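Researcher: First entry.
Model:
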Amino acid sequence: MHYLLKNYTKIKKYKYKPITIIIIAFMLWLSGIIVYYTGGTQQSYLHLVYIPILISAYFYKRWGGLIAGVIAGLLLGPYMPIDTNEMLMQAHVNWSFRMFFFVLIGLFAGSLFRLLELQLNKINKIAYYNESIELPNKTKLKNILSEKIENGEEFQLIIFSIKNYSDIYKLVGSKYFSSFIKELIKHISEYNKINNPLFYINDSKYAMYIEKHSKVELINKLRKFTKYLNKPVKFKEVSIYTDIIMGISTYPKDGKDCDEIIEKAFLAIDKVKNEKLNFWIYEREAVDVNYNNIELLGDIDNSIKNNNFLLYYQPKINLKTDLVDAYEALIRWNHPKEGFIPPAEFIPKVERSSLIEPLTDWVIEQSLKDIIEYEEIAESKELHVAINISARNFQEPSFIDRLFDYLDKSNLAPEKFAIEITETDLMIEMDKNIRKLSQLREKGVKVYLDDFGKGYSSLRYLKELPIDYIKIDQFFINNIDKNSTNRDIVLSIIKLSHALDIKVVAEGVETKEQLDFLKENNCDFAQGYYFTRPDKKEEIFKWTAKHDEKHRRG
């Protein structure tokens, strides 16, 4: 069907060219000549005339079929002998009935071709256009870009992304959102310096191709375009500001086919988001640091299956007993070709993709196995293991149930397991998240509020959050022995947490001075390089045994 639509569109470009009429006329004339010189209308060569009649009906529908039928009837009519050898002429009823039949065939074929054209137009609209927005879609864009590439044309692709899409959607409502987008498209199209057609990618992203410009010229154009886009769009007597960013890629510099060009424009969009820019022209060196993002994400699944991931652990120390109380599990990736890839290079990308679910499942399973193994070695029932989860994990409807399934299968007491989630992540659908945290705690799973102080938790929510621990971000622990502001903040967090019956963990402890201050001010737990760096389970288990033995004796 895609092939049919594509070639039908090409044929439509040429169907009304004069050459078509000349060819049809020539074929009618040629049919008459062939009939005359092969013995007249009594011979089967008479039927050749149906070919130009059908071709005319195809290109010009009913009128084309009608006219071609009449001309064919006249050519093979009163002046065409029934037998050219004896020059026997046709009866009037004979050739007039034949003309009627030609006309009937022409009209019938023209009607069928017209019906087919209407159906193909309808299918074409469904396949290549977004009906609600009334814009050509991504498939249409790819077809056009592919044609340009086949013709050797150089161009640049701009992907527009509406950053505040969700806010606008909530403001105007689902009923009027399509109407607003149409107004926005009209607003963009009215800019006369870049007024090429727009293409629909999804509700928040649109595309446009332009002729290739030099980098300096393009930047100047985009700066003016950005200034224009910053003007609010008037919709239902309300001025709505659209925060639009752009990613740009260039053919042939950035790819050999349309998929690569589109991919690079999306990578440029990611760069814009990360750097808080208005637009970015794709550059491999600036976007694909060390390892191509797409390839990297593509290797995640294989690396899970092939055990290329491993967990490092960092102990949390109970500051009242100086013994190890818990482990935080930290994922590491030993890529088969790239070697160790730092978590900061792949975790943010994975969190923005659907790969976060299988990767988190792997972390849960592996951490459960490891803590059970340690209990068997140390015969300890006091330790628990904590894993980090993202907002995407927590919003995934089946996450809680899957976690409980893993706990049930492992036969590990839920009290031996904990999750760590940042306050910023919890702010997404806070009321729902409070119910989910309550489910976890009812089961016995412990909850850490991570990176406390960096986000924007209100006292109201902090009081309502069902959590066991608050982790003070290491930003506030740094220079705690020298910076009075940091000291005051840490003291306030400790007092507030204890007032709410929440225990406190200090992250990033690196000096004895920091540790002494935390102990003096009743901080409950601490972790950091002062004790030990994260390491493989075997090394951390050994370190734990020595550390606890030393402090039990002391």
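Researcher: Second entry.
Model:
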Amino acid sequence: MGVTSVSSPTVVPTPARRSARIKLRRGIGLTLMNLVVPGSAEIAHGNRTAGRIAVRVWGICVLAALLLAVALLVAHGPVISLYTNPVTLTVLSWLVPVLGLGWALLVADAWRIATPAGMTVPGRIISGALALALVLGIGGTAYASHGFFGAQSSLIGDVFTGGGEAETEAGRYNILLLGGDAGADRVGLRPDSITVASISVKTGRTVLFSLPRNMQRVPFPTDSPLYELYPNGYYCPEKDLADLCMLNGIYTEAMNHKKLFKGVKYPGVEATKGAVEETLGLKINYWAMIDLQGFEKLIDALGGITLDIGKKVPIGSVHGVKGVYGWIKPGKAVHLDGFHALWFARSREYSTDYERMQRQKCVMNAMVQQLDPMTVLTNFQQIAEASGKVVATDLPADQISTMLDLAVKVKSKPMSSVSFTPPLIKPANPNFKKIKAKVAAAIIKSEAKDEPKPTPSESAAGETSGQTSEPAAETAADAAPAPDTAETAAATASQPKESASATPSEDAAATTEADDLGEVCSVA
């Protein structure tokens, strides 16, 4: 007798249960539709007027983003200028939150039109939790964007105050870079790093001119308020004051005489700038001063720098509480974060001020070579926050893109370097005619590298006529006599001889001038 098998009866869901599942899928679908294309759920539900308005606004935003992306690739300068304009950032600080709030409301509305009342309890919980998470995410981001753009607008307005000279001189931008240290053991703020970057607008070819912080007898231009106090240069014949009357002391001296600088916001920098202009014979377009803490944060915001380091550099000071407590070891492609880059640039133990000046140029070169506009855009918030530590700059916000474009050109050319240190000059009694002549010669030599090379016949003709390949200014620099005035002669007689400890090492002396900064330090 056969056995008849009985199959289990198929459980058919009730119409109500099927309807609840359909409404759950529909609710999740409509919510995700408004997440991807705001307003599409309203159109699908029949509310075409509200839906079309939302979709059009969304389309305009997407189109604007695409156009900006293309413009950023083709001509990023105008895009950066537009973005860094405080007015643009202020508008964005209100427009983005409003659009974000509207987007969040549309997502919530998508869940509403899905009739959650017809879902099961678990279905309402699942769809409601999804909608709530999306609304909170979009709304929270929109709210945060208000503070984000507002903070950037304030930082740019506070840091890039303007006041510099946009018009170039002989086709070059001359930018004064000051590194200041206002530590607790210092009398006021003193810029210990004083460098001028002279940049060709056409080619980006750059020459870095470094002045030692201990340079004395620095002249002031006749229109400087300090000229009347120091008509023969910044110099204190009293031995106990000699260390104060140096180039890096001008900042503090000007701050002590603020009343002489009527209407000037930064007397210390303004006085230093005038003295540097008079010393080098260059007109400064812009200046920027950054303190040590700001420098560290700025390097971190840029993602660090990478250098080929040939000599270990100590971290700390033998005179400090911790002493020397670490070392930056030599090697190829050494990546330095802000902390280590700062010590690489500022450390003066077991070295000279002049060697430190070369290391500072290494860091500047690395920052330029490894910086690009995309890095600035992708890390703009961190860079803006770090820039808040900049004491001051007279670069206006509308020139940020110009400087970034110029930085791209600078990256494509090796940098030249001139450090006005021994044996080229004596910081205690510099030959200022020789300094100016060296500056002119270095610029001529730098620009000549981008000029068409003469043909053999032209070279032969030049030699026949007695022409030389070296710039005339360089020859004049070597032959320039020391200033011969009664005041200088008297001051020289009273000036103590420079001690042997102030003499730089042979390596520092050999790198006083370099056609390529890569000869001094390598940027990995």
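Model: Note on the second entry: Residues 174 and 282 are 7 Å apart (CA to CA).
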